[in-house]
Amino acid sequence: MSERLFQLIEWLKGFRYIKFGLVGASGTVVNMVILFLAQEYLLAFITQPRDRLYASLSLAIAVATVNNFTWNRLWTWADRIRENAIAGATGAGFKGPRKLWMGQLGRYTLASWFGIALQYGLTLWLSHNLHYLLANVIAIVIASVSNFLANDHWTFRRRPRIP
Q1: How far apart, in Å, are the Cα atoms of 154 and each of 1, 37, 85, 140, 146?
Q2: Which tens digit of pLDDT belongs to each residue from 119-135?
Q3: 3-state helix, strand, coil in the chain (%, to 5)
Q4: C-alpha of 159 from chain center
């Protein structure tokens, strides 16, 4: 039984969207841990709890975004990173690894913020006719698909091979 489960997990890891979802789940854990540590310890010098929460949440979101970007780059879209590096190393339009990384991080961040805004707006809109928790789940699914597609077709897109 455990061998079949292991095989199923290995098979699912081949699907990019599943990898994306697992990275997103790890980012949620990172976000929560950083939020707690910043709110309770790291930023304790900020005396107003509400002000401390603004700073803690900003830090948690920033760290989780970089975490998710890094793991998506190293795991979810690793094949494209390698392909693009090979294609770009011989091409005239190669930007260099640092500029490529910064551009990808910027696009990833914009795609993530778009997903957050989409989830927020959809939850509010759907909650007019549905229970707010169900509305939020539906919005999360739609936003995650949107976020995945934006990153798949924009952030980590295949670059054309230059002859």
Answers
A1: 40, 34, 16, 20, 12
A2: 999 999 999 999 998 99
A3: 80, 0, 20
A4: 21
The set of residues, in sequence order, having a beta carbon less than 8 Å from that of 42 and lying 6+ positions away, is 56, 59
For the cut 90, the answer to whether the pLDDT of residue 93 exceeds it is no
Residue 46 is which amino acid? I
* Nearest-angstrom CA–CA distance, 3 and 14: 17
Q: For the whole model, what pTM was predicted? A: 0.79
pLDDT of residue 113: 92
Burial class of residue 142 (count of CB atoms within 10 Å of its CB; 0-12, 13-18, 19+):
middle
Strand residues in 38-98 grouped as ranges (E): none
Selection from 112, 94, 108, 95 nearest residue 154 by Cα: 108
